[in-house]
Every structure is written in structure tokens, then in C-alpha cells.
Design brief:
Mean pLDDT: 75
Shape: globular
Number of strands: 0
Largest sheet: none
Length: 72
């Protein structure tokens, strides 16, 4: 009868697919605005919104992305 450790795969084998998936595949980066939770107001101009939207319009969304690009 073998030890318990022999019955489990190597930890490095379980991690490798995750590492391979995180390698840059040339896809466009995800905009910072997609990681923001809705807060009830526009993240750029603070105009009141519903509890689903993050920005009041495309101009605020684009301005937020532009500002985030320069503050990285």
C-alpha cells in the first residue's frame, strides 16, 4: 500500500493549465470600467442612475477609459 501523497497528482500539473490560460494571446485588454460595480450614479460625472448601469452615456464611459489609461 502506497502513501497518500502518491495517490494525488503533482501540484505543478494542476497549476499549469491556469498559467497557460493567463498567457497573453493577443486579445484586447479588458477595459477598467467592466470591473466597476454599479453604485447608483455615474462613475465619471456622478449623475444619478439606476442600480444596474455604471455610466450615464458613452461620453462618460469613454472619458473614464481615457482617464484610466493615463493613470495606470
Amino acid at each position: 500500500m502506497g502513501t497518500i501523497q502518491e495517490g494525488f497528482p503533482e501540484k505543478s500539473l494542476a497549476v499549469e493549465p491556469l498559467v497557460a490560460a493567463s498567457i497573453d494571446t493577443g486579445a484586447a485588454p479588458v477595459p477598467a470600467r467592466l470591473s466597476l460595480p454599479p453604485k447608483g450614479s455615474c462613475w465619471y460625472c456622478e449623475k444619478p442612475l439606476d442600480s444596474v448601469r455604471r455610466f450615464c452615456g458613452k461620453s462618460c464611459s469613454d472619458s473614464f477609459d481615457e482617464e484610466a489609461e493615463f493613470t495606470r
